[in-house]
Amino acid sequence: MITRIPLSHKSPSRYVSSFSFLPFKFFCSDSDPLLNNNVDTVYSIITSSSSSKNLTQSLKSTGIFLSNELIDKVLKRVRFSHGNPLQAFEFFKHTGKRKGFYHTAFSLDTMLYILGRSRKFDQIWEVLIDIKRKDQSLITPRTMQVVLARIAKVCSVRETVESFRRFKKLVSEFDTACFNALLRTLCQEKSMKDARNVYHSLKHDFRPNLQTFNILLSGWKSLEEADGFFEEMRELGVKPDVVSYNCLVDVYCKGREMDKAYRVVEKMRDEELWPDVITYTSIIGGLGLVGQPDKARDVLKEMREHGCYPDVAAYNAAIRNFCIAKRLGDAYSLMDEMVRKGLSPNATTYNLFFRVFYWSNDLKSSCSLYQRMMDSGCLPGTQSCMFLIRLFRRHEKVGMALQLWNDMVKKGFGSYVLVSDVLFDLLCDMGKLVEAEKCFLEMIEKGHKPSNVSFRRIKVLMELANKHEAIKNLKEKMAIFGSSSQLSGAEGNLTEALDLDSLNVNHARTN
Questions:
Q1: How far is CA 30 from CA 36, 39, 207, in A?
Q2: How far is 21 from 24, CA to CA, in rounded Å?
Q3: Contact 146, 123 (CB under 8 A)
Q4: Where are the PPR repeats (predicted)?
Q5: Distance (Å, rounded) from C-alpha 345 to C-alpha 409?
């Protein structure tokens, strides 16, 4: 029998635990219209320049002062719009050559992320060597994880560890914080078994600390192995904190061992480590897994009684339970309750519903929810865009598909490469060549390389329509991106953004 969660004597807000890695900050919308206009201008130059010389001349001709704040914002836009990495790299080098100028840590990490996503590893080491000469303090454990995460995504564990060792000559202190960055990368990009093996092989070269164990605990799905790490933690005299216990609670909840999860919560209380919003979110998720969505919803009420207030992630976990149970009325009620409590549903919240509507082939509900989402100012993520565009494709709704595309182009959300492949399939099948050509050119103007498959499909239709000048124009536009075998950053990472069968509402990532 499941007991109630002990009273919480604190009401902490959701925190970013020591094992969570959020590599890039999100700036609030800037009220300075001049700065925003300058960012637009510089971004446009980056995406349209055909060479390093052309980019440099265009930037100089604008007379815009390239401040750190402007560079931060431009690179951020390149990252989230999947802009051309080599053009962004030229911009980064150009701005860094100015006498007395130093890039910010944010710009450095963002540039490395952009290059890593496109597997431009030679350029990554070029940037790091140059930064070491100028300001070594910018190369932090966070920087290490940005680089190692991209390497680990496409390379072996051995190669990832070798890259980790290369940082010994780049950072000022090759210490436990660096070791933790490696372990965090392996937990996220490889397997817990890999992380465990590397931990045991290197732990004598570093001094494992609380963060080390929290990183390792955060990814375990095996109850026995998580218990084993917890025991080793105690043997080394490292005292668990709330994060440590929350990891253990989460493991038990995901393993459907709710009684054990509640016993851990009792132990937390005994040690005066009070359950927080993350603890409750894990409990909510666990109750959903054992088929008790109503009891999970009750936990939201209990939290308030204990002085700990639900956040968006906690509501998302409860909503997910009802979506899995196909009780959409209850799920919608919780979303409305969120709004009444002053919380704004985020992209994950809406994505939970889009998934259900996609698999139930519910076009009407998907369109209604999309309109509600846009009206609220919450922009869809790539996964939501894929649910929508595939549903439009299935129902042959050209107008709806074009509306989604126009919103993406105007507001800058979603992956152009992924969505465009489905969109061009629909437009070509329906004989909408004019619309396909327009979308194709819009994509290129935004600095994104359409896939070669899409290009070939449109080219065949143009040949049949004797539009030889249009074909020549498209070929010239595509030439900007180099050889046909070269993949753009987004195209080279299809699986990174698209997994329509999985929706992660893990408490560390849903806010």
A1: 7, 11, 43
A2: 9
A3: no
A4: 241-275, 276-310, 311-345, 346-380, 416-450
A5: 23
Any residues with CB less than 8 A from the CB of 220 and at least 6 apart, and which? 192, 226, 229, 247, 251
**Span 26-41, mean pLDDT?**
72
Q: How far apart are CA 278 and CA 206, in angstroms?
A: 30
Q: What is the pLDDT of residue 290?
A: 96
Residue 298 neighbours by CB under 8 Å, 6+ apart: none
Q: Which residue has the tokens 């109503």?
A: 294
How far apart are the C-alpha atoms of 352 and 124, rounded to whole Å? 36
Sign of the Cα pseudo-torsion (388, 394, 395, 400, in order): positive
Q: 494: exposed, middle or buried (C-beta count within 10 Å: 0-12, 13-18, 19+)?
A: middle
Measured CA to CA in angstroms, residue 438 lies from 76, 432, 442, 458, 460 at distances of: 26, 10, 6, 11, 16
Distance between CA atoms of residues 325 and 294, nearest Å? 11
Distance from chain centroid for Cα 413: 13
Read off the pLDDT band of 218 (50, 70, 90).
Answer: confident
Find how far residue 478's CA is from the centre of its chain: 28
Q: For residue 495, report the phi and psi dihedrals to the nearest 5 degrees.
A: -70, -20
**Beta-carbon count within 10 A of 341 CB:** 13
Token pair for 502: 């999985």
For residues 290 and 255, is the Cβ–Cβ distance under 8 A?
Answer: no
Query: If you count DSSP H runs as helices and E runs as strands, how many of each does the chain have, helices first?
Result: 27, 0
Residues 121 and 151: beta-carbon distance below 8 Å: yes
Q: What is the pLDDT of residues 104-149, one digit of tens each?
A: 999 999 999 999 999 999 999 999 999 999 999 999 999 999 999 9
Nearby residues of 467 by Cβ (< 8 Å), 6 or more positions away:
433
Residues 220 and 229: their CA atoms lie apart, in Å, by 10
Instruction: Note whether 264 and 248 are within 8 A (CB).
Output: yes
- Give the DSSP letter of residue 137: G
- pLDDT at residue 219, as a whole number: 65
| Nearest partner of 46 among 3, 12, 84, 96, judged by Cα | 84
- Number of other CB atoms surrounding residue 290 within 10 Å: 14
Do the beta carbons of residue 419 and residue 385 sit within 8 Å?
yes
364 pLDDT band, cuts 50/70/90, is: very high
Count the neighbouring beta carbons within 10 Å of the beta carbon of residue 432. 19
For position 28, what pLDDT does the model report? 40
Give percent of the chain above pLDDT 70: 87
Q: Please name the amino acid found at residue 362.
A: D
DSSP labels for 428-474?
Answer: HHTT-HHHHHHHHHHHHHTT----HHHHHHHHHHHHHTT-HHHHHHH
